[in-house]
From TrEMBL:
Keywords: Transferase
Protein name (Swiss-Prot/TrEMBL): Methionyl-tRNA formyltransferase
Record domain Formyl transferase C-terminal: where: 206-306
Uppermost EC category: transferase
Length: 315
């Protein structure tokens, strides 16, 4: 089939590579200009450079809603558009233009985790598995019929980076497998159960701020979700920003006020956590490694020279 590819960052790069390695003919690539957004500088393999290396024409767009792009698409006459990690709305006159419509590839197990940063949100929420879904695009974001979907388990110590590597390897089989079904003439696919749908926003630095009223189990997953190369979770100690680089759920249960620097436990320092911490039934978050405001990394037991005081959400 003649394919136009819309994509960005490493997800788009992997999708384009899969298409180039397949029997399909990539006739045009549309991608975004480089961005300085903290999350868009991560996993930033260039779709444009890969296309140019293979002699595929490239158009740069922030939004694909101009007449020039529409006319160019009509000229190249695609059988299908394949999109992965396209960051803005694609209007109906674009996604309906090809003979077979538009196949969107999304790094989540739809209908859950539509929208942005699905791996990070899924890890924070303790999902047992994550995956990749190829679905037909319709008027509602990430809501079209599912053509192919594959899942991988989330391990007990997995970080968002681990989940990225697990799921990015699914892009090729999911995309090419879905195109094979479409090329073979299949037109009926699995409808999404919209009662199970959830939609998440883009993450920002604000979303890495620790709220000590969260249960320790949730905070431990947040730290793993925001591990390198993502912006680290952070809190404030004595008015200064303190990044939490590694932590585990404490063995002991600690009662009192959320955020209290309480007790050395092994290689960590236990912080009281949970909205109902006053009951004494909660585990704490045992911080093991931190980064100070001036960029120094150290073990928590080295940083916290004495117990007492509080970690806070604001200076």
């Amino acid at each position: 089939m003649r394919v136009v590819m819309f994509g960005y960052q490493t997800w788009g790069h992997r999708t384009l590579q899969a298409l180039l390695d397949s029997e399909h003919d990539v006739v045009l690539v549309v991608t975004h200009p480089k961005s300085e957004h903290a999350y868009e500088k991560i996993w930033s393999d260039s779709v444009a450079e890969l296309a140019e290396e293979h002699g595929v024409p490239v158009l740069l767009r922030n939004r694909p809603d101009d007449d020039e792009l529409f006319e160019r698409l009509k000229e190249v006459d695609p059988d299908i558009i394949v999109a992965n990690n396209w960051r803005t709305w694609i209007p109906p006159r674009i996604f309906r233009l090809p003979r077979h419509g538009t196949l969107n590839v999304h790094d989540a197990l739809l209908p859950k985790y539509a929208g942005f940063s699905p791996l990070i949100w899924a890890l924070i929420n303790g999902e047992p598995e994550v995956g990749v879904t190829a679905h037909m695009m319709n008027d509602e974001l990430d809501a079209g019929d599912i053509v192919r979907q594959e899942a991988v388990p989330v391990g007990p110590t997995d970080t968002a980076t681990d989940l990225f590597h697990k799921t990015v390897d699914l892009i090729s089989p999911v995309t090419i497998g879905a195109l094979g079904l479409i090329a073979a003439g299949q037109t009926e696919f699995t409808k999404q159960d919209r009662s199970q749908a959830s939609f998440f926003h883009k993450r920002s630095i604000e979303d890495s701020r620790i709220d000590w009223t969260w249960p320790a189990e949730d905070l431990e997953r947040l730290v793993r979700a925001q591990s390198e190369p993502y912006p680290s979770t952070y809190t404030f100690h004595k008015g200064k920003r303190l990044e939490i680089l590694a932590a585990v759920v404490s063995q002991g249960r600690y009662g009192g006020t959320p955020g209290r620097v309480f007790y050395r436990e092994g290689d960590g320092v236990a912080i009281v956590a949970g909205a109902d911490a006053r009951t004494g039934r909660n585990h704490g978050l045992a911080i093991t490694r931190v980064r100070t405001e001036d960029g120094r990394e150290m073990g928590a037991t080295e940083y916290f020279t004495s117990m007492g005081g509080y970690l806070t959400s604001h200076p």
